[in-house]
Amino acid sequence: MNKLLVEPAAVATGDIAFNLIVFFLVCASTQPDRGRKQDIPSSQQTKTEQKQENTEILVTKSGIVLNGAAVRQAELPGRLATHFKGKPRPEDRVVVIKTRPDTPYENWISVTSLVQDAGGSITIQREEERTVTVGN
Question: How far is C-alpha 113 from the chain's CA centre?
Answer without folding.
Answer: 13
